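Section 5.1 Outputs to date
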Amino acid sequence: MKKNKNNETIPEVEQQMEIPEEQPKELKKEQIGIIDLPGVGAATAEKLETVGYRDIMSIAVATPGELIDASGMSQASAKKMIATARTSLDMGFESGIDLLKKRELVERIPTGSKAFNDLVGGGFETAAITECFGEFGSGKTQIGHILAVNVQKQNPDAMVVYIDTENTFRPERIIELAKGASLDPDKVLSNIKIARAYNSDHQMLLAEKVESLIKDQGLNIRLVIVDSLTAHFRAEFIGRGTLAERQQKLNRHMRDLSRVASTNNLCVYVTNQVMAKPDTFFGDPTQAIGGHIVAHASTFRLYLRKGKKGSRVAKLIDSPSFPEGECNFYVEGAGLKDI
């Protein structure tokens, strides 16, 4: 017979109900910060946060070279940091069912044109980069303005970041579109954060600051627009001798935008300039700037061109889930209109 602390006999029924003292408990991984990673002190953490590495996820998806450039640490320390960050997040394989459940969180921003929406599966996806390229006057910037209004029509609390590299953002156009969508123009404009980028480094810095707006200031950013993506890169890096450096910077810029889109489930819309290939004798010689770097980094690619009688044509060049196709539409004061 067992006895308790007061030397009293414990009935057999209570003995059977006793819970073993060494019962195994499920261990939960504690949330850690950058300062908790091996080899990271206060000074190193401050350097990393200054250039945009503010959480464990940003460290986990970084490369050793990027961390070395940001903080000056050794390659061994950088690799150890990344390995620890990935272990803490339990990054690995997941089933198709789990991925399907995540895909259910994806939203679509409508364009205002039924034909255009059908072409891209209902609208521009969040957690993805959509690139529109075409010659001047093809409607790239207009679509950016329309998306900035439509995302707020879909979600009144949504905010937009507009990185303007060519001085193409016009608040007057936003007012016109907001009235066409029966929205308060002042509220729509107040929910759009515009920044003018004066060179490629400034453009990349603004893209990195989007994460800070979301996490530090708590803004509900649902759309990031870069208009245009390649204007500064094209102007600053001239000649074949600078091509490798330009493509490396452009690749990093696209990776930053992709990470922001996927980690925050927001839509990134970028416009791109074009050039004419002189060796094309048959077909359309128009080709997007940025080469394969931009092409591979973009989730959806759309080619815009002028159509008949003032219309515009959108052709879906690349998509992970939809077939190639095209649609026609008009750009009007209230937005896009089907033909």
